[in-house]
Amino acid sequence: MKTLLPLILSILSAVCLMTLASCGRVYDAGSANGSAVGFEVGQKAAPTDVSSASSRIRVSVIDVGKGDCILLQADDEAVLIDTGYESTAADVLSCLRDQGVSSLGAMVITHYDRDHIEGIRPIGEAVGVGTIYLPEYEGADKNYRSCIKSVEALGVPIQRVTEELVLPIGNAQLTVFPSGVAYRSGSGKEEGNDNDMSLVATLRNGSDSYLFAGDLEEEGIDAYLAANHGQFNILKMPHHGQHSSNTLEFLDDARPQIALITDAEKDPASKKTLKLLKAADVQTYRTSVDGTVTVESDGSGTYSILT
Question: 186-210, pLDDT tens digit by residue?
């Protein structure tokens, strides 16, 4: 038996390493300087207490090209932030099926650009939706009218976000913030400030923290910074990773460990933005490169990234 013991221990060690490898890459939110700390297969993160009130959550940034569609899951509940294009609705529904989602407690529409709203009706008709949350402003273009038509066709409750809104998802807490800027419609070839009107959302679950920044540009980022929301471990970058004059200030304020970018191969994130993220040692994932990106966490501040 003594001669077999080393062989048995070797086999058990190999099995443990294979199990860890199947879980993707793990990140710990407990680093002192706020930078990303990657734990390769076989390394052990510092132990962190997990509150009994925390949920096991999953955040899937679905690949819809240069557009937003983000699935939040905690326990048996699910919420969708934005819906991508009409042409990508089938891909979104496939992702929902794969994740075992047959109904949504809510849809949160950050603003009325087509890459955020076109999937409302086909997705809503395929799965049940509890409530649809919309920005408080009324857009002046066809995208806004199309959004309202789609929402009304579903016949589900609608709520305008006029003040800070808290939505529980399992034991996690999704908070949606209204825009801090005034709406200006465009005229002629001039675009309005629809992107800057984006609803901003945060998700907190024990020591886990996520920030979803919609399509904020310079004006919207300034308003966000003035609100002093604090730091977040995971950041869905604003406006598909495009660069603004205050992008660096935004990153310094949020101090993310991991950044998620919803870009497309033909319309990628700005090289300036990617350089800033690299300089800040922020681990970055892009739908144009990685496809759908899923982050799993359990309230301990440790994250598994699946692509």
Answer: 866 567 899 999 999 999 999 999 9
- What is the extent of the structural domain holding 115? 54-182+191-300
Tell me the one-letter amino acid at 42.
Answer: G
d(CA 280, CA 212): 19
Lateral strand order in the sheet of 77-81: 38-39, 25-28, 302-306, 293-297, 57-61, 70-74, 77-81, 103-108, 128-135, 158-161
Six-digit token pair at 187?
Answer: 């005229």
Going by C-alpha positions, the residue among 249, 181, 255, 241 that lies closest to residue 213 is 241
The verdict on residue 217 lying in a domain is: yes
Tens digits of per-residue pLDDT, 149-164? 999 999 999 999 999 9
142 in a structural domain: yes
* Residue 211 neighbours by CB under 8 Å, 6+ apart: 200, 201, 202, 229, 232, 234, 235, 236, 254, 256
Pick the closest to residue 176 from 209, 199, 208, 204 (CA basis): 199
Mean pLDDT of the chain: 87
3-class SS of residue 239: helix
User: How far apart are the C-alpha atoms of 279 and 150, rounded to whole Å?
Assistant: 42
Q: How big is the CA angle at 276 (ends 275 and 277), to the nearest 5 degrees?
A: 90
pLDDT in tens, 234-287: 999 999 999 999 999 999 999 999 999 999 999 999 999 999 999 999 999 999
According to DSSP H, which parts of 100-246 are helical? 114-117, 120-126, 142-154, 218-227
Residue 177, amino acid? F
3-state secondary structure (DSSP) of residue 207: coil
- Answer yes or no: is 31 within a domain: no
Structure tokens at 49: 């207490």
